[in-house]
Amino acid sequence: METLNVVLKLNQAICHDEGDGPGSAEPYLWAIFFKIDGLSVQQNGVSLAGEAEFRFSQGSHENLPNYDVDPGEVIQIPSAVGEWSTLLKPIVIDDFQGNIIEVPGIVGVVAVLMEEDNVTDTGAEAGHQGLNNHVRTSINDFIASINLLDFMNSEDPQADLQQMIDDLIKSIKDGVEDVVEDAIVSNQNWLEDIWAWINKDDKIGDKVWTFNADEIVAANYNIPLNERWRNEGDWEINGDISASEVCPAEAMNALSVRNLKKQIDLDKLRAFRKVLNKKFPEANSWWQIAIKNSPFVMRELQRDKKLHEDFYQLAKSVENSIDNGNKLNDDFYDKVIKVLERFEKSRSKSLRLDSKRMKAVVEKLRGNDLNETLKVLSSSKPVVRRGE
Fold first, then answer.
1. Which of 93, 112, 220, 260 could hold 206 in an S-S bridge, CB 3.0 to 4.6 Å?
2. How many of the other CB atoms lie within 10 Å of CB of 371?
3. Domain ranges in the chain?
4. Which of 83-87, 106-110, 193-197 has the lowest mean pLDDT?
5. What is the pTM of this model?
């Protein structure tokens, strides 16, 4: 199994009906991203050792850009609240008979959409931390409860694992309201508790999504996330999971084989990458930008076959330049600009911004051969602004 470069993102909250009586609604979102995979969990005899990895969203009250919401409004969820990028690696298991089994890693997100009323800011954030602790404990207890012998002896281990995951999701959802309310009450004084009791913050809805690496690959590396709650009004949340192989070249090749029935010369590109590391190590910061955006690029190529074909031709041009004295003509740079302009229309903020910045750099590279291009890139690191 390949290690996957995965991005989980909650993009939008939509208010169909704010349901808060007179005045506007004041929604806020708690999101907890997690994964159970071979980077942090390993076999220890008949059990699993290690814990899940988590990414907890920032803030409570007013953590969404629009906290005065009326029916029909769409709220763009900021990255600090609704996005996580991570690697997903299989868990390697020895079946006690000398056979090595790779179990696909699991990734997921817990989303709780709330509406602000009389709970204090301190109380709401205490509820947030109570929720985080509840989810962390539930998932790590789930990992610790796994007995590998039970799976080895099972007639349908995949069904047994799915049942355990279903039980985990139920445990998380069942505990949400109690742990949040208890944490709020323990962090407010009695007057604040009475005020909150008169009109406490409302839970619009909660949702737990989980997928393993095999399911992500089977879905062509992109899975939409959607939930609608007709509670405390009528609300909807949208997002997606995007993934690719970690190496952008391998991701590009795999997608091209699937969708275009064409392939690139990975051996040639790997050999060139070794030269790149040796002669131009400072240019690696640009490679890291490519790795970061790889899931978003692959998603755009899947959606637009013409864009995919153009991107594939650029990869072949780089291949050919390695054999032909590293020459890159003006037509190559013109195509790069056109591809970047199309990436600027992506739903991914990261890809939009990096494509815009790269366009300015590409204009400075025009007329250079591949070696000269790498020298220029080595002397100027990509701009990354704080919070991106």
1. 112
2. 14
3. 4-244, 247-379
4. 193-197
5. 0.85
